[in-house]
Predict the structure.
Amino acid sequence: MKFLLSRALIKVTGSDSENFLQSQFSNNIAKVSPEAIQVNTYCQHQGKIISIIWVFKRKDNFYLSIPENLKEIVLSRLKMFKLMSKVEIVDLSSSEYQYGLIDEKNENELVIRNNLSILITNEFFANNEDINLWEEACINNTLPEIYIQTSEKFTPQLLNLDIDEFGVSFSKGCYPGQEVIARMHYLGKPKRKLFRFTSKFEVFVGDSLDVEKSESLKSSGQVIRVAKKGSEFHFLGVFDLRHIKDQIFLNNDKNKSVTIIHD
């Protein structure tokens, strides 16, 4: 059990709460259950992800788990679009605690993906387990995250969230960025996708991934989630499909090569 100190929790209540969240997020809120986390994206009008939102439901109330450093941005945006809706938005970050479970069972667990689940409780369980264990498990399950450094840089397709509609529903109604995301899904193919990498060099969220043969002035990819495992760093990165067989470097430093993992 890993205490997820870096996550915030928002409660959304009121008779219009489901319709309101349905109009804001990328997944089908009508399918949110009390047993599992539904992964959503909160996008701006160009389809770029502001934040990934973990949504679950208790009785008639919805709960949104988000990275702490994006809380104020998400809260501000939700309150701006609430308008006259019968919705109340409450920050529970200081009264509810979030724990990540890996291959653990708990009667109140909320499954996210495969062997990963979340426990939300008002009880604090002191633990000294390394948060890198949780990050490593999320990376192994190709579960992406967006932080302040990478907010508004990627569409859901670039983070593989369109696969099996894990984080995006293509049959629900409109939400911010929906037209761009749907157009990419039906009419085009993204040039970049999410991959797992390893490196013996220190890696940070936001670092660039570069190759010598890049056809663009921009970097060929970017790091979005990192875990340290022993002397190595494991990470998720969005990367150009045209260069997956080329030698890849961190921040265009030819002395710092990284390895892409082909599943």
User: Anything to note?
Assistant: The longest strand covers residues 49-58. The two ends are 27 Å apart (CA to CA). The chain has four helices and 15 strands.
